[in-house]
């Protein structure tokens, strides 16, 4: 169907938040177990929360969040904290890039309103001027209702080599402020980036798209019929899992692993771009975070327990121990409880290469934090030794761990805050502060927090094997089968 044949409508805007990235360039804070969108990097809210709140307007429909299954409870809790209680959380059974994720959202929306306008955005970008964003969105939505697939083109402020670019074409007369896309350009070298910057025809590709669900699905079917068919079957066969919508694994895993840019945006004649100046950053590196963070008189941005002396133009962050930096310039220093990262700001993009080296070396720090979040709370390792491990376990009020047993370890629980109900084989035991309970190897046990305050206990494990996969679940409130 040509653009002239498209039927303009007044479809409701539906925010679609993609939360599948791992953000390895912001290691060691961002890791696959708890990536950057779940961290408060710029305010007291996480990037996911800031993104969700931007989509919380009375004239918008309920948001859709497409995410990794492992992160579903983190997302649900972070949305609950900010009062977003109507989101549809769609679980990807495997990572297949942005096109299948967006297609799934479009299929789900089209079930109720094919003409609804999807506003697709990443969960981990920063916006400095939300009001300017909404003005740009209004232009993009006008174009989308006429059958265009619009993207926001960010006006460049420097010769950036880490972004793709969009070359602007002729204006779209029926959507003032929007332009046809002449072509998409890959990430340039420095000389090309400088040329793009000097021209007014080029914008950074923000990765945000605005399009009607039916138009988007039609173009996906046209260019990627296998993707359209497989995702369609996956959506049709999806299951309701507590508060989540779980896509069918077999069909979804057969979808091509491809971005929406390659699948549709760079191939369709419907592509439109709306120039934008709302202070966007994808926070794709520590240097990018330094650029948008508040700074002292010496150009330093700091977070946490940090002391500087004679430092200039540095980003220093500590999420735990005190960090001191003396007499250096243009450095990034990031300290967590289990890793320290130091890099020149000019090499910030290379942090990803170091993560790859750590992964190749089999280091769990590459992907997992010491603190591991679970739907009931979190745990963190305090001490590890030969045949023993000490952990701190935090259980939120009203939550319970699974009913389980271990083949290779015994456990001793000491309650230090709150009250626990412990199931041990046929017994049910109340354990209060400064009391403890022993769980012999092989016993069937469960930990619950019946109170109104958080439960904290110290767990001492002992045995020949202490891996998290030594667990057999008999019953679980969160429908998990493995740890």
Automatic annotation (TrEMBL):
Enzyme class: transferase
Protein name (Swiss-Prot/TrEMBL): mannose-1-phosphate guanylyltransferase
Keyword Nucleotidyltransferase tagged: yes
Entry keywords, A to Z: GTP-binding, Nucleotide-binding, Nucleotidyltransferase, Transferase
UniProt keyword annotation of Lyase present: no
Superkingdom of origin: Bacteria
GO MF annotation, one: GTP binding
Domain Nucleotidyl transferase: 15-297
EC number from the UniProt entry: 2.7.7.13
Coiled coil: none
Catalytic activity: alpha-D-mannose 1-phosphate + GTP + H(+) = GDP-alpha-D-mannose + diphosphate
Domain MannoseP isomerase/GMP-like beta-helix residues, every copy: 311-358
CDD domains: cupin_PMI_typeII_C, GDP-M1P_Guanylyltransferase
Classification via PANTHER family: MANNOSE-1-PHOSPHATE GUANYLYLTRANSFERASE
Record-linked SUPFAM superfamilies: Nucleotide-diphospho-sugar transferases, RmlC-like cupins
Family: Belongs to the mannose-6-phosphate isomerase type 2 family.
Database matches in Pfam families: ManC_GMP_beta-helix (PF22640), MannoseP_isomer (PF01050), NTP_transferase (PF00483)
Domain Mannose-6-phosphate isomerase type II C-terminal: 362-476
Gene Ontology process terms (BP): GDP-mannose biosynthetic process; polysaccharide biosynthetic process
